[in-house]
Amino acid sequence: MAEPSYRRILLKLSGEALQGAREFGIDSDVLKGIAQEVTDVHGLGVQCALVIGAGNFFRGVPTSQQGLERVSADYMGMLATIINALAMQDTLEKLGVTTRVLSAIDVPQVCEPYIRRRAIRHLEKGRVVIFAAGTGSPYFTTDTAAALRAVEIKAEVILKATRVEGVYDRDPKLFPDARFFRELTHLEVISQGLKVMDTTAVSLCMDQRLPIVVFNLQEKGNIRRVVLGEPIGTRVRTG
């Protein structure tokens, strides 16, 4: 059996990834499918951490543009990520994977507070760790939270799950001639304004020389393929 290319990863999922074809909420079949893929990777001996967005329930920035105060909207989005994290935890544990949710906002009745050393210890003990509530501060996206947590736990890579093959110069669903990038530097992503992660997240990854692999989550088995080092998606690295 092939050896994993990474021993500790952080998987970044959008909230929309969990809703499937639904307009709102969580599609249980999609959730089970993603959880099974994480379980498969965990079975390779890879330490797995996750950050999940909240777009299937609530998006802070668009809501703030409709009149709700931005800080309040962002906190509402953070709480929505806890819903997704708990759903993923429950599904993973039904598959036999011990999982911990660590939240940047204290909700002791349902999950643990985020403490870096505790998170690392959970990973070392073979538990999947799900980071919830973003950074715990408004004005920061879950992309930035993913980059921050990845750096803090010394992850070897961020796996950014999307609905397309990787990074293009424009939306391939709208422009069939969109150019696909197999490899980029962090600086190229920032200077060209490419839609990988937000600029704060990419800058942090660049400073810490943390690679990002952007790949299509909708193709079954892709998480495992990336972890095993197969050349799929787009790899973002320090130049």
Protein traits:
239 residues; alpha/beta; Carbamate kinase; 9-stranded mixed sheet; two-stranded antiparallel ribbon; 11 strands
Short summary:
The protein is α/β, with parallel strands linked by helices and 239 residues long. The chain is built from nine helices and eleven strands.
Task: Produce the secondary structure layout.
Blueprint lengths: L7 E6 L2 H4 L8 H15 L4 E6 L7 H6 L4 H25 L4 E5 L8 E2 L2 H9 L3 E5 L9 H11 L4 E6 L4 E2 L11 E2 L1 E3 H6 L7 H9 L4 E5 L5 H6 L6 E4 L2
Parallel strand pairs: 1-2, 1-6, 2-5, 3-4, 3-5, 6-10, 9-11
Antiparallel strand pairs: 7-8, 10-11
What does this structure look like?
The chain has 239 residues and is of the alpha/beta class. It has one domain: 3-Layer(aba) Sandwich (Carbamate kinase), CATH 3.40.1160.10. Helix content is 38%, strand content 19%. The chain is built from 9 helices and 11 strands. It has helices at residues 16-19, 28-42, 60-65, 70-94, 116-124, 142-152, 186-191, 199-207, 222-227, and strands at residues 8-13, 47-52, 99-103, 112-113, 128-132, 157-162, 167-168, 180-181, 183-185, 212-216, 234-237. The strands form 2 sheets. It has a 9-stranded mixed beta sheet, with helices on both faces. The two termini are 32 Å apart. The relative contact order is 0.16. The mean pLDDT is 94.
Strand residues, percent: 15-25%
Q: What's the CATH topology name?
A: Carbamate kinase
> Given this structure, which CATH class is correct?
Alpha Beta
CATH superfamily: Acetylglutamate kinase-like
